[in-house]
Structures are given as C-alpha cells and as structure tokens.
Amino acid sequence: MPRAPRAPRRGSLLLATALAFLAAALPGAPRAAADDPSPAAPSATAPSAPSAPSAADVRAAQDNATRRAAEVAAVEAQLAAAQQAEQNLDIQAEQSVEAYNGARVRQQQAEADSAQAATEAATAAVRRETARQAAAALAVAQYRTGLPPALGAVQGLMRVQDLHSAELQEEALQAVQLQAASVAAAAADTAAAAATASAAAARAATAAEQAAAVVRQAAAKVQAELAAQHTEVARIAAQRGALLARLAAAQQVSVALATQRQQALAAAAAKAAAEAAAAAARQSADAAPSGTGTPYRAGDASAAVAFARAQLGLPYVWGGAGPDVFDCSGLTMRAWQHAGVSLPHFAADQYASSTPLSYHQLRPGDLVFWSHDGSPQDIYHVAIYLGGDQMIEAPRTGDVVKVASLWIMGTPDFYARPRPSGA
C-alpha cells in the first residue's frame, strides 16, 4: 500500500547521540576543556545523568515499527481479499434473488394456466355428457316412434305425399343418427383433449413450483454465505483497527490520523473509479442516437419517484415487494405500479417490458440495470434514476432502501423507460 512521505526517522539522531555519549565515556578518551560546560568537575556524590538510549534500543524501536507496519500491510491484504469475496457474493446473492423472482413469475403463470386448463376440461366434460344424453334420448325416441324427434314433425307430411316413405325415412334416420354420433364423438374427443391439457398444465405447475423451491434454496444458501462473509469482514476490520493502533503507537502518531489516512486513500480510489465510470458512460452515450425516448404520461414518473422516496430506510429482504420490505425489482415494480404501470417482479422482465434508452436520455423515474455478463437475460439488479447521477435502490441483505450514486456499482449495463400500460 502506498504511504505518504514522512520526516526522517529520529533513530538516526538518537543513534548519533548514543555513539557520541559512549565515545565520551570510554576510558582513556581525550576530553577537551571546552567539552565541559561546568566550571568544575562533578563531585563523586552528584547524581548521575540519565543514560542515553543504546544503539540496540534504537534498532529495536525501528524493528518494532517495521514489524507493526508489516502486520498492518498483511491484514490490509486480507481485508481487501475478504471485501472482494464479499462483493462477489453480493453479486451472486442478487443474481440468485432475481432468479428466484423469475422462477416465481413462471410458477404463477403455470398455476394460472393449470387453473384455466382445469376449467376448460370441466366444461368439455359437461358438453360430452350433454351430447351423450342427447344421443340416448334420440335412441329412445327412435325406438318408440320409429323416427327420431327431428323427423317427427315431417312424418305426417311424408305419409300424405307418399314419397316412398320406407327408403326416405331410412336415409333420414341414418343421417340423424350419424350426426348425433358425430356430435357425441367430437364432444368426447374435446373432453379427452381438455383433460390431457389440464393434466399437462398441472404437471407444468408442479414442475415450476419445484424449480422455484430449488432456486429459493440456492438463494438462501448464498444469503447465508454472504452473512458469514459480512462477519468475516467485520472480524478482519477489527483486527486491522487493533494493528493500526499498535502501528500508531510505534510510530508516535495517533490512531485517528492513521485511520483517516486509510479512509482518505480509499475515498480517493473510489472517486477515481466513479469518475472513470462516468467518463466511460458519457463516451458511450455520445455515440447513441439523440432523442427523448417514449414520453411519460403526466405524473407517471413523478409518482414512481415519490413512491420510491417514501420507502427510504425500509429494509432489504429478498423476494420482498412491500409494504415494509423490498428487494431491488420489488421496489421498482411497486413504484411504477403506484404510477399506473404494471411491471413483473423480475428485473430482466422489467427491462424487456420497457423502452431502451441511452445514458443521455435518462430522466427521473427511468430504470437502470446491471448485468453479470452484459446480456439482458443476466440482469441481476435494477434501480430508479433520480437525476444528477443519483438513484434510489434496494441494494442487498443487511442494507436498506437508499439514495446512492449511479456509478456505485460501476457503469450500468442498460437504461430503460417503463411503457405505459396498453402502449
């Protein structure tokens, strides 16, 4: 870790003083009168002067400071590695949460399809039974009268006109019988197909439910790993604080000063990264087509932003969609629902349901997205743009809904504006 320039060590001066003292005290060493400022030599009973630090003392102090600095450097490396692991787990957690949200959307759709298929199967079964009963009634009527009910009205006419009734009645009877059989068979086929579709839909709903459960377990596992990593980072940070205190004591500087310096270095690095990300975003946006994109209806964006602001400070809980807890896509879904626009509880689907924008087209209320591999299908985080490179987000477990820099996670991968319902 780079360190700020410091004043020359006092050890060199102390070492020179110690050597001079030892040289003057050695037996047989010549001593000029001018070297003794006192008018007379000290008496045997005078108190002895305090001994100067030895070269060994000086070297020990220097070695101690060096050891403390090495300890701090080592724990700084451990802390950086732990924080990087925490960041990676945080991304994995967001991905798993959004995967669970997507699985839940698919499960809900499969359940709705299953319910619809079951309703259609029940209706088809009723029609099949109705057709069966009608065919049975036709057979009874034929047995009683020799003609089906449909021909009963023309029976007298046929007798009066004497139209070779035997053949004509036989042909008509066969036609009606065939029609009745066809209706009954079609109804049976429809009912069978509906029952098959209903069973398939029910199996799909069960599979979707099982898939959602698997994804939920995976998300819970990553969340547990992330919580453990939070604890590890806190432990190493506490160890770092203790070592900084020892280093500060060894270097005769305050712990506060050492901590402030570390914080200043971290802040400078973060600022440089944010500036680089902003510059990259502006450069890529300059090449995008100009325009304002799809306009909002009056009040849409402001209503979404107002709702999001009202949730500031509420805790993040994965799968949360209000009213007291939210995850990232749950917050944006409810915010735009408050504005009259329906969005799914799944960040990738929210992007698919919106109009893509460039950075320069962003307006308050628009959505910003991050993807693990740069594809829309792998979007794992979404937030609401406020303007001025600020956003409102539900970031991660252990955090709350808050305002943050647009560049806090690096340059967003996608920008989009929710389309009004029905557009």
Would you kindly provide a written description of the structure presented here, covering whatever features stand out?
It is a single chain. The protein is of the alpha+beta class and 423 residues long. 62% of the residues lie in helices and 7% in strands. The chain has a 6-stranded antiparallel beta sheet. Strand 4 and strand 5 form a beta hairpin. Helix 5 packs antiparallel against helix 6. The chain is elongated and about 140 Å long. The protein starts with 10 loop residues before the first helix and ends in a 5-residue tail after the last strand. The N terminus is likely disordered. Belongs to the peptidase C40 family. This is C40 family peptidase. InterPro entries: NLP_P60_dom (IPR000064), Papain-like_cys_pep_sf (IPR038765), PG_Endopeptidase_C40 (IPR051794), TAT_signal (IPR006311). It holds the Pfam family NLPC_P60.
